[in-house]
Amino acid sequence: MDKKIDGATLSLVRGDITVEETDAIVNAANSRLAGGGGVDGAIHRAGGPSIMDECRKIGGCPTGEAVITTAGDLKARRVIHTVGPVYRDGRHREPELLASAYNASLELALKNNLKSVSFPSISTGAYGYPVEEASEIALNTVIGFLRSNKGITLVRFVLFSDRDYGVYKSTLERLLP
Ligand code: AR6
């Protein structure tokens, strides 16, 4: 599913982010940049050890911020690692920190002249963020960013399950009828 936001495209697809050919793919990392399961594990497995070598040099990334590394063997040019919040009850700045993770990733893409970016559904796996709520924050944040910044022409959400794809799709249809 595609929507036009000013000059840019916002796209939802079901798939595996490690095979995306956008300029950048975003990793849902942890604050130690230590690797792990989920999409983080998949990106490091597919991209090879050079990504972790750079993560070690960088040393860490606070929740809601983002850092950038090589993409190793992946087709994307760079990997942007961001850290979403661990969901507790929604009253511990989770919405603000999740929005910040998306914004920080897009700012970093812009700064590095990367025009197309693929995102996974940050925080909705191991970090437990309910996907209905997270999809609204994710999509609203990206739409707001694309409306107020020029330079990024394509943002793709690569959703790993049919269910997540369905939730993102109905949220997007509600936000941009
Ligand atoms: N492509 C796209 N999405 C994927 C892929 C893939 N190859 N694999 C999983 N997902 P998670 P989080 C989806 O747990 O909640 C890690 O251990 C997955 O189905 O990867 O932000 C880190 O090291 C889910 O919808 O990230 C951190 O410690 C989404 O990606 C912690 O997990 C996010 O799930 C981060 O937790």
Structural class: alpha/beta
Work out the radius of gyration.
Answer: 15 Å
- The end-to-end distance, rounded to whole angstroms, is 13 Å
Bound molecules: ligand AR6
Which strand order do you get reading across the main beta sheet?
1-2-7-6-3-5-4
Shape: globular
Estimate nothing, just give the exact number of structural domains.
Answer: 1
CATH H-level homologous superfamily name: Leucine Aminopeptidase, subunit E, domain 1
Average residue-wise pLDDT: 98
**CATH-defined fold name:** Leucine Aminopeptidase, subunit E, domain 1
How much beta, percentage-wise?
Answer: 15-25%
What is the tally of beta strands? 7
Q: Please tally the helical runs, counting DSSP H or I stretches of 4 or more residues.
A: 5
Tell me the major beta sheet.
7 strands, mixed
Helix content: 25-40%
